[in-house]
Amino acid sequence: MSSLAPPKERIWWNEPIEISELIWISIVFVWGLIMTFMMPFWHVTGDQNLSNETYKTTPERFLEKTQAMVDEYTVRTEGPRSYPVVRPPAGGDVYMVSRLWDFWPIIELEKGQTYRFHLSSLDWQHGFSLQPANINIQVVPKYEHVVSFTPDSAGEYSVICNEYCGIGHHLMIGKILVVE
Amino acid sequence: MNEQFRTCPDTGLKFFASAEALIKANAVVAVVFLLVGGIWGLFVGLTRWPAVHLLPPDWFYLALTAHGLNVLIFWIIFFEIAILYFCSSVLLGSRLAAPKFAWAGFGLMLVGAVLNNYIVLTGEASVMMTSYAPMEAHPLFYLSLILFAVGALIGCFVFFGTLVVARAERTYEGSVSLVTFGAITAAIIAVFTIVSGAIILIPTLLWSLGFIGEIDALAYRLIWWGFGHSSQQINVSAHIAVWYAIAAIVFGAKPMSEKVSRMAFLMYILFLQIASAHHLLADPGVSSEFKMFNTSYAMYLAVMASMVHGLTVPGSIEAAQRAKGLNNGLFEWLRRAPWGNPVFSGMFISLVGFGFLGGISGVVMGVEQINILMHNTLYVPGHFHATVVIGTTLAFMSLTYWLVPILFRREIILKPLAAWQPYLFGFGMAGVALFLMGAGTLGVPRRHWDITFSMTGGVTHEFPAAANTLLALNGLSVLLAVVGGALFCLIIVGSLLWGKRLGEQQSPEPRIAEVPPDEAYRGIGVGVITVPGTLTLTMVFFISFAVYYFINWKYLAETWGIS
After folding, report:
1. Which partner for B255 in A179, B261, B443, B458 could form a disulfide, CB atoms 3.0-4.6 Å apart?
2. The domain containing residue A8 runs over which residues?
3. Are residues A86 and A159 in the same domain?
4. Domain limits of chain B?
């Protein structure tokens, strides 16, 4: 009987399985186990695991904390927007605001050092897309996400919004500078 | 109850008047929305093409919203309702339960879809299909989607009711066919999906009207994707049922074994529902344990289901072909398949494209850590154009070529062009999928009007030059796919209007292939392996999969340390 008609046996469970099917199912099952193993394995051995450390916050509180960092660690202003360039101490906390439509302020990091980045949005959802390192993280309002980054090479990096956030989405860009 | 039915002279299938009218109405409306959504897709592709950059930003975001909703939701779900009625009423030879409710559901869906197009066109709802709160659309946007969803839900219940009627009235013997079984899977997942949609869209509607103060952005994402991702599992179940149906129609194929194919469908129901996690892998506030378990569909058991279908669908074709005497070598069965018949060629391109392009990229992108490289880049639309467009849309197109003569009793017009159509559409869309994924790998964001950052007052970013080339190639592929899509709409609508009327006359060529007798299946293949060709193809697939999987771990290891 074809696939459009009722099966030959009323209790189709009793029909035999083909050898080809058994071979393929075994391969696929083992492959599934390998892939299942890879994720926790990378948590133990890999250097790229997104932290889940998250706090509830408010736009006001987050902006306040960012402002405090800017006040303390600004080293100069730079770029067409004259944004403050903030150089926080290695291993320290870094705050970056996502809002309609920019990332603020400019951050300067030291290569090879680890920083605790705090990401949140002051309004809608945004995407923190660090290029060309190609690290992409969702930024959600009222949630403060703490992620540690260790830059591995010096240069100018862009932060691009890759979550659609209205008509000015394509205007939303920020900078992170990594120095030796 | 005695309801009028006609018996199709070509297939022997029973068409009850109410079911027939509803299948026709849903399928025709589906094609109209495909046309509308396809036109928007053309504008999107041409705007992404750096040298063309057709639309201004407000129109681009409007077009992208309209494109997604029309083709991903309206075209596919209208067609799926037609498939549900076909798989219940027609395949089981039963009258349709509650046709009046079915028409009410159809009416609600139509009102919802038209209203949605209207409000998106006004520019008040350029929020993309996902409409992430707290970005707000006009209340009619949410209302239109709720109306549409309620209509679809009614359709699902008419389908379940028809199964009950068929069983009670003993219109068939034994268990339901594998194809109907697949449709049941799709409908069960649809109920879960639509309920998730209601749980999130109703509060969002109330919020947009000012009755609720706030929608939590993270909760919105979690529940919305319970709707958004699960709805793609409806598509997968439905189009795999269509693959099996086409294998039976064109080759008289039977399942390699009922147990394996049906268990694979069942695994979708058991393990797909939690797929919401795929969209939260780069989100705050969700634990790694939750992400790992759910993104792997419980240790890749639902991925296993798709890979099993990937063997058993072509395997059933190979076995049937070998039983008909095409038993030489590894691939005689495939070489001598009817490549000029769009019912088959479209289905086979759909199968290969879905597996190699959509399946592999989906699993790789769904690895908790690797997702960091792809989240919200063009890789994502690249992936789902392979799954939803090559997989679902092309499978539905192929089935339509078969449905027009038996359902509408009209001959397909422009047959030589119809023979080319699946190749134009399939290969065009394969280009779209590949080039978007390529651009995504270079970090190009999705849903973005201007990747040259020409309007930011001097703060810019330069993507690798290859990104521009890839987006130009994407534009060319879009053109190819649009020609294929337009040809489909032209051929189908043209056939309904001007195709030769077939009446009660039997076709000289059979519209459903004869089923080879059981004895013919004896001794096919090589030794105990009845389908050596398919097994070889699955090994090629497996090796490509494993290689690409580990290449991406290597890419990941090369970026900044993240913890």
Report:
1. B261
2. 1-49
3. yes
4. 1-174, 183-337+522-555, 341-504
